[in-house]
Design goal:
By secondary structure, the chain is an alpha/beta fold. It is built from 17 helices and 14 strands. Helix 7 packs across helix 9 and helix 8 packs parallel to helix 10. The longest helix is centred in the middle third of the chain and has 16 residues.
Amino acid sequence: MLFTITYTGQNTTDLGYLLYKNPYRPQTFELTYGKAYVFYPEVSKRINTLERTTVALLLNIDPLDLARGKTGSDSGGLFDYVNDRPYVSSSFMSTAISKVFGTSMTGRADSRQELSDSPLDLTANIAMLPCRGELAKLNSVFEPLGYEVSYETFIADEKFPEWGESKYVNLTIRGKVRLRDLLKHVYVLIPVFDRQKHYWVGTDEVEKLLRLGEDWLPNHPEKAYITGRYLNRRKSLVNIAFERLSAANAVDGEIIPPEIPETDDTEKTAKSEKKLNLNSQRLESVIAALKNCGAKSVIDIGCGEGNLLNLLMKDNQFTRITGVDVSHTALERASEKLKLYRANEHIRERIQIFQGSLTYKDSRFAGYDAACVVEVIEHLDISRLAAFERVLFEFAKPPIVIITTPNKEYNANYKFLDEDDLRHGDHRFEWTRAKFKDWANKTAEKFGYNAQFSEIGEVDEKYGAPTQMGVLKII
């Protein structure tokens, strides 16, 4: 991955002061899955009466590190399958920009502060930026920020011209902007076009987006597109972001709602969400979390009749799928749904189901990239939770655990429920958002995980969403 910035003007070696990187000394930075190199291909190159200095950030990611994880790490790899991640401008590049040029993004420049606060003639090149049939969006996103936009396209494969154009472009943006602004723009917008972040998108990403976009996002004509894509179209997070953007547009104490233009993406998303019932939204959210984590092998503990297993089977990312349930009847129905009785050998090698309990140690639970526990824990007696925690987090210990459970607070929206009623006759308890987070955080800390949370379903301003989800990742 290659990202360059060219400064044209007088005394252009001052770019080194703004970036805290000596133009005459290449530097190397260790990252989690590779190395970042900073060097200057040209320094004070004379062009008529002007100079030009270019800095390059080269990100070298080892595909084996992505697939297997770092040597000595207990956790699995982020992407245990063949993919384009090591070779294209993606969220990995944004992370590298933040680490290598983090001080510059704040605008602090010590002895060159006046220069840092001034618009400069800057040109940035982003190599191999994924852009799936959305070339016009490059213009509508970058031009309102003051850039001239150009890009180089390619044939996907010269040997097979019928495949058409590649989904990657070499993007060039040029404008009279402050360096800090350019870095923030690129940091935010690379993942907007790539759409495949290598880390989980939670509420912290809302804060990051609003912090880095505070000077330009509230009035950007494509703020709906940028916000939605940056937050992976997660409705609850997008709603939070828009509420904050509205506040940013406040005039004389009156909140002016942001004008959110309807794009093809937002229309499709809205129509899709209307068609989905809560269970479908829940399962799709679990699938999205698994894909974001790069999981390849998945065990669904408490799989019931196999609804999640059926969705996993339809996605080729998941090559080893297992369902477990204590109910033999539920497993028979799952087998019928998955058509296992007439499945070929390839399908039988890819998926299996077996009877088991999540409160008893079972060696068959181990060896998966991720474990899903979807609407299950609320069926356990509170006294059995400790056994469940040990079985899953101590003995099976998958790198990723995804848990969903009802949000008790949302029950106020169900008119047929009295104040202390539970949604299902077999539920032993239902937790508030605070209680679920407290339990998940304590469990994560006890067994060496960290926890992130999100909501699923239509969000009530006071009571939240009907379902809450926790994603626990091993540290």
